Amino acid sequence: MSPELTVVVDTAEGDGLPELLRSVDESTLHPDRFELLLLTSAAAPEVTDWPRFAGRRPNVHLVAEDQSWSEQARGTFVLHLRAGQRLFPEALERLLETADVAALDAVVGREVVPGGPVDPRLLVDTTEPAGDAEELLAGPVVLRRREPGTQDGTSVRVGVVGVYPATLRTADEAPADALPSAPAVDDPEIAWEGASVRLRLAGRSPAGTEPRPVLLVRELTSGLAFPVPLTTSARPGAEDEVAWTAEGALDLRTAAAGAPLPSGEWQLEVAVPASGPAQPLPLPEVALPVALVDDRVVVTAGPGLVLDIGPTARGCPAFPAPGAATVTESAAGCRLELRLTGWHVAGDQGVPARIAVDRLRLPARVVARDGEAVLTAFISGLAGTYPLSLQLGRAPLQPTGLAVVMAGDGGVTVTTAPERPAPVVKPVVPKPVAAPRTAAKKPATGAAPKKKKKKKVPVPASGPVARVRRAVPRSWEPQVERLAQVPALRTAYRRLTGLARR
């Protein structure tokens, strides 16, 4: 069975080849539906054992220098990729499906370049793209039919897959004067509306232009970026400006090309193209309440306007007062409930969490109840006052500013956590400076060296009295010691044993 798609990669094109091949492996398109041809005329230094790489993948084939890839390609469609690019997981499947269903000769995909310009023509899915088709076909991601229905370039049936991006590429450094001017954007108006973030943007563009603002939401780690639908309007402003407004909603349940936005840190960016691609810039940071949307918590943080879905790194900006907490005794144990006042709730699901009572970590859950988010957990411990911390998603454990007080009779209450005393800084005592060692003086030339005094070696007592002393049993030693303290007996003993003469 012949594959539907042939992906061609030249291994001699620059760095970043392992990342490209890894992204091909992670594609959602089944390996039986596409083949990968590696042109190994001049292998890149990152990967040298191409036969071993291809031997582990039945859909990978090597094309030597004296061979032609076009003669070995079997797919109905062909896609050329180069080192430095990285496929997004669903890109091949979406490009191939669009070309097959609409019977197109070519499909243009969108390449994400963080910090690079955005082409508004590549932010929609269409089979009738606006503008010059030849200009679109010169882009970096083009899936072509290997045997098109016509050779006339003007009649080639072209489509665009722009809502879901095709590839990611690291931005090339460009001179500052080559970048488009930054748009003048006011602080956005933003609020929760169900599972959506409702936005209203306003800004100004140079007179004589037709601003068409576009809004993107981009994941900071993977680079995955999706357009947000906007309704725009423009009116004359000052003499040299055009004032524009744009309104739209970021629906967390459908923003990822019809699917929910995955967990991660998503930054909102705006670009204002007039006659071509434009440079996107992050929206200014705006305070937004923490939200419980279905089975995920969303925290807003900066720099810029970032939605941390999960959350994955950001903690809650504030927690309620102790009055929002209740503790009840039940057969299952001591149950703590903390009403998370101020949170926005959409849906009736919950999310698992963890709490820490001092150093004891316990499972918890954030649930939706009567339009309000409530933290529930069973707690236990010895008598004392313990600070309470909370962990949501993959974010780090965060102090809540509350403390659990456990009385000796088993009663449990929640209060404000006491402030930790400032650490005591011990004064630094300078170490005494040792006096410098003086070198030993050498004896003058011709002077006789001093003789070293020999240490006297003690000579044991001798004679019959000494022998009697040594024969005294150990149990009598205390009495003998007391007799030795008598001066007259001590003197007589030294005379009789010869110790007095030494």
Describe it.
The chain has 502 residues and is mostly beta strands. The protein folds into four domains: 5-169, Spore Coat Polysaccharide Biosynthesis Protein SpsA, Chain A, CATH 3.90.550; 184-286, Immunoglobulin-like (Sandwich); 322-416, Immunoglobulin-like, CATH 2.60.40; 464-501, no CATH class. The chain has helices spanning 17-25, 50-55, 69-72, 91-101, 133-137, 464-470, 477-484, 487-497, and strands spanning 5-10, 34-39, 60-63, 77-81, 85-87, 106-109, 111-112, 142-145, 158-161, 167-169, 184-185, 189-193, 196-206, 214-219, 225-228, 230-236, 241-251, 264-271, 281-282, 291-293, 296-301, 306-310, 325-330, 333-339, 344-346, 350-357, 360-369, 372-379, 384-392, 398-406, 412-416. Strands 14, 15, 18, 19, 20, 21, 22 and 25 form an eight-stranded mixed beta sheet that branches. The relative contact order is 0.07. The model is unreliable at 174-179 (pLDDT under 50). Residues 433-466 are annotated as: Disordered. Residues 433-448 have a biased composition (Low complexity).
Question: Roughly what percent helix?
Answer: 10-25%
* Structural class computed from helices and strand pairing: mainly beta
State the helix count.
8
**Shape estimate:** elongated
Distance between the termini: 115 Å
The CATH superfamily of the largest domain bears the name Spore Coat Polysaccharide Biosynthesis Protein SpsA, Chain A
Work out the strand percent: 35-45%
Largest sheet features: 8 strands, mixed
Uncertain regions spanning at least 5 consecutive residues: 174-179
- Could you tell me the number of beta strands? 31
Q: What is the CATH class designation of the largest domain?
A: Alpha Beta
Summed over residues and divided by their number, the pLDDT gives a mean of 85
> What's the Cα radius of gyration?
41 Å
The total domain count is 4
Q: In the CATH classification, which architecture of the largest domain applies?
A: Alpha-Beta Complex
In CATH terms, what is the fold-level topology of the largest domain?
Answer: Spore Coat Polysaccharide Biosynthesis Protein SpsA, Chain A
